[in-house]
Write a structure and sequence with these properties.
By secondary structure, this protein is an all-beta fold. The protein has a single domain, classed as SH3 type barrels (Roll), CATH 2.30.30. Helix content is 0%, strand content 37%. The protein contains no helices and five strands. It has a five-stranded antiparallel beta sheet, with no helix packed on it. A hairpin with a 5-residue loop joins β3 and β4.
Length: 67
């Protein structure tokens, strides 16, 4: 089972050198790891300007919905 679902809002966490650290986006696609290793699941995140990038689950964090 994957940590995130399509449509969920996520934030890019520090760790890997990327200009997207701290940015928020929406999970657009998910690709579970063939061997069942959850930390190796890949997620395509779509950002505000429709730009898409791929991240591992450990590079992402859930963003709480504002009420």
């Amino acid at each position: 089972m994957t940590k995130f679902k399509v449509g969920e809002r996520v934030k890019i966490m520090p760790g890997v050198a990327t200009p997207f650290v701290g940015s928020e986006g929406i999970i657009a696609e998910l690709y579970p790891h063939g061997g069942g290793i959850a930390t190796m699941d890949r997620f395509i995140v779509q950002f505000e300007r429709r730009e898409k990038r791929s991240f591992y689950s450990v590079e992402l964090a859930h963003v709480k919905k504002s009420e």
